[in-house]
Amino acid sequence: MIERDLNKELDPLLDLIVRIDDEHHKLPLYGRLKAISPQFLTIERKDGRLTFIKRKAVLFIEPVKNQHGKEAV
Predict the structure, then answer these.
(1) Cα-based torsion angle of the residue sequence 47, 66, 58, 12 in order, rounded to the nearest 10 degrees
(2) What pLDDT is recorded for position 67?
(3) How many domains does the chain fold into?
(4) Residue 17 belongs to a domain
(5) Is residue 69 assigned to a domain?
(6) In CATH, what number is assigned to the domain containing residue 16?
(7) What mean pLDDT comes out for the span 54-73?
(8) Number of H helices and number of E strands within the chain?
(9) In terms of C-beta density within 10 A (0-12 exposed, 13-18 middle, 19 or more buried), how is residue 6 classed?
(10) pLDDT tens-place string over residues 4-62
(11) Which of 10, 41, 42, 70 has its CA 20 to 30 A from that of 4?
(12) Are 34 and 41 spatial neighbours (Cβ–Cβ below 8 Å)?
């Protein structure tokens, strides 16, 4: 039940291209949000690589405005 509450905010972003600001990078990370777990977010980068981001480190997450091409930025 706790996991369901944690994912309620992020579920609408699943499979969208998102911008993520986190504590460990100066520049934002961009990619398609592929999976949400209690500890990590998984994004797929434009070149197909998967990147795992600790949820505790995420400062801000938002969908990018242009979802038209459905390709990661």
Answers:
(1) -110
(2) 83
(3) 1
(4) yes
(5) no
(6) 2.30.30.100
(7) 81
(8) 1, 5
(9) middle
(10) 566 788 999 999 999 999 999 899 999 999 999 999 999 999 999 999 999 999 999 99
(11) 70
(12) no
